[in-house]
Design brief:
Pdz3 Domain, six-stranded antiparallel beta sheet, 18 strands, single chain, alpha+beta, 3 domains, elongated
Length: 453
């Protein structure tokens, strides 16, 4: 629980800071006075100080933040939300409304730009430091008929160890490429092209059928050699005499052709002695392994099951990136995530995707804790994705959000003058009502998820 709370505060704190820093830097760059920079809303915590003309504060409510700029007009529109009216007077040339239209658009859009830059840099940094681990195969070892969707039944007739060349026309180099294309929600259907003259297979499962696509990805078995690359000391495999480099050829009386087959045999025999045969160099070695039972949560049902583990690992390919390629990967990955967010928003609007999928702070906290436990790189990956989400959601044309402010500025550019102050105040009130409704809906969804409803 403490890790989850700490991860939640860290994730939101960093992303809010990055967003508001964009507004702050842009405002300073065009000469607008900034009397307050706040992380969070509401009253200030003791973690507040003043430096120069700006008060830097952390507020008690961790739902966003703001950069309060010198402005008479914005004071009446946003004054209550941003801590009340300003007491200090500023010269006209340092007021927001006296800046050019272009300067104001720059200041308002800078927060979204900073969120996008953060995502690109985060993804690029992960590629540069960690690289990517992939399964070096595009060969299909078969399918699990228990979970294979009916629409994909033709995949069951594909011969063992058939190489997948392309999915929906895109070439694939490793198994992760295949999974990403299978799980792509924007594709209408899937076409698998194989080597060796095998006929293509068309799977008519639309991308918006998330459950169907996940079931398909789960059912497809990659052909991975049952070769051990490392053995964990003190675990059943090490105790039985298994060594790095051994290749499992028999286990529990059945031949073993792939890593997946070995895993299934081990998982099903927790606590039982399992006779195995490994190929060590040119010699077959007979051993007996007793898988130890571990509590594993089923990702579909959430049930806790006891599954066998023996403490071995298999080969995975680590793809390394240089600085330039890492930057390209960061931009590409950010764009892919942005496309996914836009597709999801469109699906919610046209009712192809249930509004129940909208999550709020409880879900963010839960997911933050899960990724924090998985490792720092996984947490940064999640933050990058969330930063893309925040950038796009902030561009929605809802007054109060950056997109609403930009909409009003564009209308000002078309009309040659701003909308009346009274109209902007009314639009802001409507925007607040809409935003509050979305937040209430998101929190309600979170609570329903907690109770499994």
């Amino acid at each position: 629980m403490l890790l989850t709370v700490a991860a939640f505060i860290f994730v939101l704190g960093v992303l809010i800071f990055v967003h508001e820093l964009g507004h702050f830097i842009a405002a300073k760059a065009v000469g607008i006075a900034v009397p307050r920079f706040s992380i969070g809303m509401g009253p200030a915590t003791p973690l507040s100080f003043t430096w120069g003309e700006t008060e830097y504060r952390i507020a008690w409510l961790p739902f966003g933040g703001y950069v309060k700029m010198a402005s008479k007009e914005e004071q009446e529109v946003m004054g209550t939300l941003e801590g009340g009216e300003l007491e200090e007077e500023y010269p006209p040339e340092r007021m927001f409304e006296h800046k050019s239209l272009g300067a104001r658009i720059l200041v308002i859009s800078a927060g979204v730009v900073m969120n996008a830059i953060f995502a690109c840099v985060a993804y690029a940094g992960l590629a540069l430091i960690y690289g990517r681990y992939v399964d070096p195969t595009t060969s299909l070892a078969g399918v699990d008929m228990e979970v294979l969707p009916e629409a994909a039944i033709e995949l069951a007739d594909v011969p063992f160890e058939s190489n997948i060349l392309r999915v929906n026309g895109d070439s694939v180099e490793h198994w992760q490429d295949i999974l990403e294309l299978v799980l792509d929600p924007t594709s209408e259907r899937l076409r698998f092209d194989f080597a060796a003259g095998i006929d293509p297979v068309i799977v008519n499962i639309p991308g918006i059928d998330v459950d169907g696509r996940i079931a398909l990805a789960t059912a497809m078995r990659p052909h991975l050699d049952p070769r051990v690359t490392s053995v964990v000391p003190g675990q059943p495999a090490a105790d039985a005499g298994v060594e790095g480099g051994d290749v499992f050829v028999w286990a529990g009386g059945d031949s073993v052709r792939t890593w997946g087959e070995l895993v299934r045999i081990v998982e099903d025999n927790a606590g039982d002695s399992v006779p195995v045969t490994v190929l060590r160099g040119d010699t077959l070695v007979d051993l007996a392994v007793v898988p130890v039972a571990q509590s594993i949560q089923d990702p579909e049902t959430g049930d806790i099951e006891q599954r066998g583990r023996i403490g071995v690992d298999r080969a995975r390919l680590r793809v390394r990136y240089g600085f330039g390629n890492a930057l390209v990967w960061g931009v590409k990955e950010s764009w892919n995530k942005a496309s996914l967010v836009l597709f999801t928003l469109k699906g919610i609007v046209v009712r192809d995707i249930s509004p129940r999928e909208i999550g709020g702070p409880i879900l963010i906290g839960q997911v933050s804790g899960q990724f924090a436990r998985a490792g720092f790189d996984m947490l940064i990956n999640f933050m990058a994705f969330l930063s893309v989400n925040l950038a796009i959601l902030n561009l929605l044309p809802i007054p109060v959000l950056d997109g609403g402010h930009l909409m009003l500025l564009f209308l000002e550019g078309i009309r040659g003058k701003p909308l009346s102050l009274s109209l902007r105040i009314r639009l802001t009130q409507v925007g607040l009502f809409v935003l509050l409704g979305i937040m209430v809906w998101a929190v309600a969804n979170d609570i329903l998820r907690v109770f499994g409803i």
